[in-house]
Amino acid sequence: MLDIFHITGIGEILWDMFPDGAQFGGAPANFVCHSQALDVKSRMVSCVGNDELGRRALAFLQQHGVDTSTVAQSEDRPTGTVEIELDADGAARYEFAANVAWDALTWSEAMARAADEADIVCYGTLGQRSEVSKNTIQRFLKRTTDDCLCVFDVNLRQNFYSETLIRDSLEFANILKLNDEELPVLSSICGLSGSETAVMEQVRERYNLRLVALTRGADGAILLTEDSVSECDGFAVDLKDTVGAGDAFTAAMTLGLLLGHELDRINEHACRVAAFVCSQDGAVPKLPDDLKLEK
After folding, report:
1. Measured in whole angstroms, how far is the alpha carbon of residue 197 from the centre of its chain?
2. According to the model, what pLDDT value does residue 98 have?
3. For residue 229, what are the β-bridge partners?
4. Cα–Cα distances in Å, from 3 out to 26, 60, 149, 194, 255?
5. Cα dihedral across residues 141, 145, 146, 149: positive or negative
6. In this predicted structure, what is the pLDDT of residue 158?
7. What's the rounded Cα separation, in Å, for the pair 105 and 188?
8. Plot region of 151 (φ>0 → left; ψ -120 to 50 → alpha; else → beta)
9. pLDDT of residue 125
10. Residues of the chain with pLDDT under 50
11. Number of C-beta neighbours around residue 28 at 10 A
């Protein structure tokens, strides 16, 4: 266990409601579960309802070794849910419940301590869809240290984002992760054009980012820094579903960066982890030992 580091996810905890049953989810929650599975101490900052799904969510996180001391319980809002439909290729479509617990994330002294300790914090747009939670998440990001890796995983869902929110979220980031469907949206918002890598470089320069990551589904990923570009092809697997694969990629990529690994090594490992998740049911399957991080 790499317990010298503190990894934090902040934002939504929810249950993915598949036709055959509920699966734990939420991008930052998946991120911390995968970080913990990769043997790095992790905590979640969020809010669940004081209901059965909320208790199951806390138990799930704890069973995966995640610190839940900064997960609040709401007495008047339910735990978040999202209805999921999978197409013939295993890709997911989402319909999110409104006015749920993670929309009412309020500041606490425990959050302040978590921000002070964080070596990595991962956040997105969905967790900021309410004004209350947006203000709390951005307050958390402002409090982090200069050395903290602030990972903006864009994670565009339904209509729960705006140009202003994306621009503001980029200002807090030093790492940007997005997929090939989100890149054109970002390009339009920022008034950028050119190839994938050209747009990635323009975003990196404009927001002084340490790294930009673009995932491309079965086609792998591109990582771009000021000094280099790494491209990795995807790894073929028997596909079950893609839910959680991007979050697994983000966890493996960011932890590799924190450990100072070489860019191609980071990219290949993150792609392998994501491919494994695609071959399993659910967003956070148990990872085999050969995919865990090496120092």
Report:
1. 22
2. 93
3. 224
4. 24, 20, 17, 42, 12
5. negative
6. 79
7. 30
8. beta
9. 96
10. none
11. 29
Predicted local distance difference test score (pLDDT) of residue 29: 96
For 40, residues 6+ apart whose C-beta sits below 8 A from its C-beta are 1, 2, 3, 5, 7, 255, 293
Cα separation, 249 vs 268, in Å, equals 10
Q: Helix, strand or coil for residue 212?
A: strand
Which residues 6+ apart lie within 8 Å of 292 measured at CB? 37, 38, 39
Q: What is the pTM of this model?
A: 0.93
Residue 112, C-beta contacts closer than 8 angstroms, at least 6 positions apart = 143
Helix axes 163-172, 131-143, angle to 10 degrees: 20
**Distance from C-alpha of 64 to C-alpha of 111, rounded to nearest angstrom:** 21
Helix (H) or strand (E) holding 200: helix 196-206
CA gap 41, 183 in Å, rounded: 31
pLDDT of residue 58: 98
CA 211 to chain CA centroid, Å, is 15
Please tell me the predicted confidence (pLDDT) of residue 92: 66
* Kind and range of the H or E run holding 34: helix 27-37
User: Which residue(s) pair with 209 in the sheet?
Assistant: none
| Cα 82 to Cα 64: distance, rounded to the nearest angstrom | 22
SS3 content of the chain, % helix, strand, coil (to 5): 40, 25, 35
Separation of CA 142 from chain center: 18
- Pair 277, 244: CB distance under 8 Å: yes
| The pLDDT of residue 39 | 84
Query: Measuring CA to CA, which residue among 169, 152, 163, 216 is closest to residue 188?
Result: 163
